[in-house]
Amino acid sequence: QVQLMESGGGLLQAGGFLRLLCPPIGTSFVCYVAGWFRRSPGKDREFVGAISVAPHITWYSDSVKGRFTISRDNARNTIFLQMNSLNPEDTTIYYCAARPSSNPNYKAGSAYDYWGQGTQVTVSA
What we know:
By secondary structure, the protein is an all-beta fold. The protein is built from no helices and twelve strands. Strands 2, 5, 6, 7, 10, 11 and 12 form a seven-stranded mixed β-sheet that branches. The protein is globular.
């Protein structure tokens, strides 16, 4: 059982930035694919980004590409989502997800085995 706990969300004004973190609990992240998703109540889950195991290939949704950067720090055993140039449309709950390394559809939530509880990001105009 892999436990994830996102953190780093908050309230800020448009144009600002946040850095979300996703450390696993009791497990090395080195061999896991990790993804970030977001979902508002009553709406479908939206893929944000994902990162593979080494060589750390990344994927992004068109809506965040160029603004968000997903990375991983194996020494600190955590996954990051750097969110720049935030706008009100980015307001929602963000979730970290993970699965053992394979060749899944990185953009599909169903490909992931483990999920965090979510962290709220609110961006005001």
